[in-house]
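Board notes (copied after class):
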Amino acid sequence: MKSKIKNVIFDYDGVIVDTMKSHIKIWNTISKSLGNGENITKEIVKERFLEGWQDFYQTTLGIPLIKINEANEMYKKLSKKSKKPKLFPGIKKVIVSLFKKVPLYVVTGSLTKRVKDDLREKGILKYFQDVWGHDEMPNLKKSQPEFILMPLKHWGIKPSEACSIGDTKAEIITGKLAGLYTIACTWGWNNYKLLKEAKPDFIVNKPSRIFKIINEFCNINK
């Protein structure tokens, strides 16, 4: 049985910052260069981004497994030229408010340094205890419980005392399998239908609901 929430784990893309547009631009370049050339749209991402970027590259961009590493290196190079993403409206207030109550962390499929630099530039890195990106665990996918269990173990956090906040079906399922509370955000990379299929503990349609849920329903100490 889960105990009181003592730590909150945020995803980055699709929860804190809106990076959909920049990713689509990069993915279309990768698809045309190494894959099937399919034109990726927001609707496609909402419906097909299911098991993390590796799976998406293969099933939607048509990248052969043998070229996944090459595609990832292309992504890293192109992402350096992308515009800085904007914070979702209201998310900074939620982060600041939660910071006063529980330790906050970020576990993301993006690169650790890039995420830290962006959060620092936006003036909110100071509210997070630590950030773990895909480069910290390159052999894992977001659909694997170890993707979140590894950083939790490093931080000395019991899964039953943590809540993960994500925007994709894979992130919610992973959080549940790992034994965390889960909150699904509808403003990110998956549509409501997919998020509901994952059966999160809560589904929210605006950032302010995150604070309300954790503060009122999960019995964190005030």
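Comment from the instructor: The chain has a mean pLDDT of 92. The first strand starts at residue 7 and ends at 10.
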